[in-house]
Amino acid sequence: MATKSPSNSADLADIGIFGGSGFYKLFDKYEEKMIETPYGPPSAAVAIGTMGGKRVAFMPRHGEKHTIPPHKVPFRANLWAMKSLGVTRLVSPCAAGSLQAHVKPGEFVVCDQFIDRTSGRADTFYDGPITTHVSPAECYCPQLRELAVKAGEKAGITMHPSGTVVVIQGPRFSTKAESAWFNKMGWEVINMTQYPEAYLAKELSMCVVNVSLITDYDSGVTANVEPVSHAEVMKVFAANITKLQSLLVNLIETIPDGREKCTCADTLKSARG
C-alpha cells in the first residue's frame, strides 16, 4: 500500500456512486474534481453534487464516453479518489446478466456475495511491507443492502434481496458452456466489474452496496434466447435508468450519518497480526 492512507481532510462527500455501462452522468449541477492518486489517474473526474439532501460524489467507472473496457478499469485509482474526498459509503450499481430464469431483465438484485473469475487485475492496496489480510466473507454492507432493497421497493421495482454475482474478466461474454455451469452452481448474476471494486472498498474500510440492474439472460441460461450483446445490454439499461435513479434517490435519503449498525469501519482490526 502507499505509505499513507488517502487524505480526506476536505470531506467533500460522504457517499460515492460509481456509474456503470449506460450511466455516465448523475447531476445537473455539480463541481468537478480530477484526483491524483498513487495508482495513476481514475476513470474520470469526480462530479460532486447534492442528492437526497446529502453531498454525493459520482464517477463513471468506464469513463465519460465508455472508453475504458472492464478489464482496464483503474479500480485502485477510482477507490482511492473516492476515499480521498471523504467517502465512507459507496453505492456500486451495474448492468448485469441473469444466470437464473426467475431473475428477469428489468429486475434488480442486491448482491451479497461474489465469485471472482477475473485474471491479473490489481486487486489489493496491501502489497507490503505490512502484511494485511482483509476478509471478503461479508464484503457487502448489510445495512446498506437492507436500505437498498427498501429503496427499490419504494420505487416500485422488483427487488431480489440477495444473490451471488460471478465476475468474469471481459470484455468477452460467456460461452454457453460457461453460462450453463454458472447456472448449475446456483449463482444468480454475472458482471465484469464487481471484482475487485467491492473488495477494494472493503480494504479501505468503506461500506459498499451493489445494485445489479438485470439487462439480459446470459447465454445458455434459457432456451430460445439470443446470445447476449452489448447493444441489447445498453438498450435495456437505458429503458430502466429512471428506475435506477429513483432507487438511488430513495437510498441516499435513508443512509444515516453514523455507521453504528455495521462493522465495515473496523475492517482492519482483525486483518493484521
Description of the molecule:
- This protein is an alpha/beta fold and 273 residues long.
- It has one domain (15-267): 3-Layer(aba) Sandwich (Rossmann fold), CATH 3.40.50.
- It is 25% helix and 22% strand.
- It contains five helices and eleven strands.
- It has helices at residues 75-84, 142-154, 176-184, 194-203, 230-254, and strands at residues 15-19, 31-33, 46-51, 54-60, 89-98, 108-109, 113-117, 159-160, 164-168, 189-191, 207-217.
- Strands 1, 2, 3, 4, 5, 6, 7, 8, 9, 10 and 11 form an eleven-stranded mixed beta sheet that branches.
- Strand 3 (46-51) and strand 4 form a beta hairpin.
- Helix 2 (142-154) crosses helix 5 (230-254).
- The longest helix is centred in the C-terminal third of the chain and has 25 residues, at 230-254.
- The model has no long low-confidence stretch (mean pLDDT 92).
Sequence-ordered SSE layout with sheet pairings:
Elements: E1 15-19, E2 31-33, E3 46-51, E4 54-60, H1 75-84, E5 89-98, E6 108-109, E7 113-117, H2 142-154, E8 159-160, E9 164-168, H3 176-184, E10 189-191, H4 194-203, E11 207-217, H5 230-254
Parallel strand pairs: 1-4, 1-5, 5-11, 6-8, 7-9, 9-10
Antiparallel strand pairs: 2-3, 3-4, 5-10, 6-11
Helix pairs in contact: 2-5
| Multimeric status of the protein | single chain
CATH architecture: 3-Layer(aba) Sandwich
User: Beta-strand percentage?
Assistant: 15-25%
Distance between the termini: 17 Å
Strand tally: 11
The CATH topology label is Rossmann fold
Number of domains: 1
Overall spatial form: globular
| CATH H level, superfamily name | Nucleoside phosphorylase domain
Counting helices, strands and paired strands, the structural category is alpha/beta
The secondary-structure element order is EEEEHEEEHEEHEHEH
Number of H- or I-type helical stretches: 5
User: How large, in whole angstroms, is the Cα Rg?
Assistant: 18 Å
Helical content stands at 10-25%
As residue ranges, the low-confidence spans are: none
* Global mean pLDDT: 92
What does the largest sheet look like? 11 strands, mixed
